[in-house]
From TrEMBL:
InterPro entries, sorted: AB_hydrolase_fold, Esterase-like, Mycobacterial_A85_antigen
Alphabetic keyword roster: Signal
Gene3D superfamilies in alphabetical order: alpha/beta hydrolase (3.40.50.1820)
GO molecular function: acyltransferase activity, transferring groups other than amino-acyl groups
Protein name (database record): Esterase
UniProt entry tagged with the keyword Signal: yes
Record's signal peptide: 1-20
Source organism, top-level taxon: Bacteria
Length: 269
């Protein structure tokens, strides 16, 4: 198992999702959004996992879809389904996308591994089910996430670069070497090497992500700052820094910026 470092400890921040089952639907949310909770019965990760989807005020039919991935531990897909996020979504007006708060389990890091094929679960089960339920435009999809979810967004988008118009990592959990990673993030050294985004970007630049618009940000006090800077440099994109650490107060303060980025990219899909 890979060693744990001080940086890795912060990455211990994500939760769990059935294909097609409904938990609750049409529940009114903040700022006019309509919240739907449904389960995905997954053949790829052999589990039933709850998801959260939100249609903005005015309804979701024909609108694009933003897939937003949570960090490790915590409340999973409920982590960012909060008043601050919906307030930011409401500011977009007619440009607001549908949002899927997908469930990545406690520490899947959204990649194929011993616990299951989290790539196929997300790409072939969860996202298509959300598109169907929300009547979203399947040709206009963006993906982003926080911490583990930021890593996952870039990891998933490289598997299907033509699927996503934009990719965002907010305080993305990134490491320069396998020995820096926390227990559970990867199965072993070979698993890390197969999913080393910094090494991949240094070798191939932004090519694995096709024409998608790319975004990275993190707090000035975030322990992943150095690795994030290295990833951004290899991708030849800006790394946005604002005061703050690796915590909810930092992310909530920048939801508006994040959603404006996704809305602009989706408008150009």
């Amino acid at each position: 198992m890979l060693a744990v470092s001080a940086v890795a400890a912060v990455a211990a921040l994500t939760v769990l999702p059935r294909l097609g089952g409904v938990v609750s639907t049409g529940a009114p949310g903040a700022h006019g959004a309509t919240i739907e909770r449904f389960d995905v019965h997954s053949r790829y990760v052999h589990d039933t996992l709850p998801q959260v989807a939100a249609a903005p005020a005015g309804g979701g039919a024909g609108r694009p879809l933003l897939v937003f991935l949570h960090g490790r531990g915590g409340r999973g897909p409920e982590s960012d389904s909060n008043a601050a996020f919906y307030a930011a979504l409401g500011k977009l007006g007619d440009r607001a996308p549908n949002v899927l708060f997908a469930n990545g389990g406690d520490h899947s890091y959204y990649h194929r591994r011993g616990s299951g094929d989290w790539n196929r679960y997300m790409l072939d089960e969860v996202i298509p089910e959300a598109v169907r339920r929300l009547h979203a435009d399947p040709k206009r999809i963006a993906i982003g996430g926080i911490s583990m979810g930021g890593f996952g967004a870039y990891q998933l988008a490289r598997q299907r670069p033509r699927t996503f118009c934009a990719v965002g990592g907010h305080s993305a959990a990134l490491w320069r070497a396998g020995g820096e990673t926390p227990a559970g993030a990867f199965d072993d050294a070979r698993d890390f090497a197969r999913n080393d985004l910094i090494a991949l970007s240094r070798a191939r630049g932004r090519a694995p992500w096709g024409r998608a618009r790319l975004w990275l940000d993190g707090g000035t006090g975030d322990p992943f700052r150095s690795a994030g800077d290295a990833f951004a440099a290899a991708l030849h994109i800006p790394m946005h820094h604002w005061p703050g650490g690796h915590d909810g107060s930092y992310w909530r303060a920048h939801y508006v910026r994040y959603l404006r980025f996704y809305a602009a990219a989706l408008a150009r899909c």
